[in-house]
Amino acid sequence: MSSASFPFAFRPRKKIDREFVRVLRQMANHTRALTRRSRRILPVSIHETRVLIKRCRALLWFAKGTLPASELKRARLHLRKASRLLASQRDLAVMRTALKKLFSDISNPKDRKVLVTIFHAPGPGPVTDKKSERSLRQATSLLLATIGQITQSAKTCSKWPSPSDRLAKAFHTTKKAGRKALHGGKAVQFHNWRKKAKRLLYQLQLTHPASNKRMERVIKQVDKLQNELGKYHDSVVTQDHLRKNLSRNMERSLARRAANLLEKRKDRLEKKARKRARCIKPK
């Protein structure tokens, strides 16, 4: 795993303040490139913009205690708004992917027939390319404005945190969120665990661009954990969609059966996440 794997990363033995600004500029350039090519590959541009928003949030978290609190608050609000602009496009893609994956995981013909019926059932109004393009432009505009704001503020800061200290904090908060999720079993707790695991992954990639083999294994395990938790959350989103929309347009028994299948999938993913979490050791 080389530094090329993580384009938005601090270079070794460089000053943190300069690297922080350099990474922000990289992100701004990438955002502009996504805007220019959005018409050709709209779904990819939307996905990559959402990832950039999350990486920007991870940078803000790294700089907590360095950047002024008011600047951080304003930047978080802008990023949250940008993310919400792309939420509807993301949720539709998630539901279709979750149903397709569930279909491939089961062999019962009756259950498969239920999923096919649901997959083709009428739902909420479609999100057109025109609406998606407009939302993407608004989101990238907010992201670029936020990056510009943070960049200017970062240039005036002198005291920066230690990457090792921030990484230790990220490990701690992820482990704590995991314990709560596995003990409480609530969807919102698993979603919070996923967000903490995602943030940990971005902190690892930010501070370890050229990792040794041990750290490579840690990054790989954290990536798999957040991916499994992401699939868990996608199942929750799909269940909510079935309850709020599809049950109005089809037999409730079919929607209920599909929701039960998704519940079983969540159970399988929870077991995988539990096992994966035990393999992640920061030291």
Structural class: mainly alpha
| Order of secondary-structure elements | HHHHHHHHHH
Going by CATH, the homologous superfamily would be: CHAD domain
Distance between the termini: 19 Å
Helicity range of the residues?
A: over 70%
Number of domains: 1
Looking at the structure, the CATH topology is CHAD domain
Number of helices: 10
What ranges have pLDDT less than 50 throughout 5 or more consecutive residues? none
Q: Identify the overall geometry.
A: globular
Describe the structure.
With 283 residues, the chain is an all-alpha fold. The chain has one domain (3-279): Alpha solenoid (CHAD domain), CATH 1.40.20. It contains ten helices and no strands. It has helices spanning 16-37, 42-62, 69-85, 87-105, 109-119, 129-154, 163-184, 187-207, 213-249, 252-279. Helix 3 packs antiparallel against helix 6 (129-154) and helix 5 (109-119) crosses helix 10. The chain is globular. The mean pLDDT is 87.
Structure summarized in a few sentences:
The chain is an all-alpha fold and 283 residues long. It has helices at 16-37, 42-62, 69-85, 87-105, 109-119, 129-154, 163-184, 187-207, 213-249, 252-279.
List descriptors.
single chain, 283 residues, mainly alpha, CHAD domain, 10 helices, 79% helix
Topology summary:
Blueprint: H1 16-37, H2 42-62, H3 69-85, H4 87-105, H5 109-119, H6 129-154, H7 163-184, H8 187-207, H9 213-249, H10 252-279
Helix pairs in contact: 1-2, 1-6, 2-3, 2-6, 2-8, 3-6, 4-5, 4-9, 5-10, 7-8, 8-9, 9-10
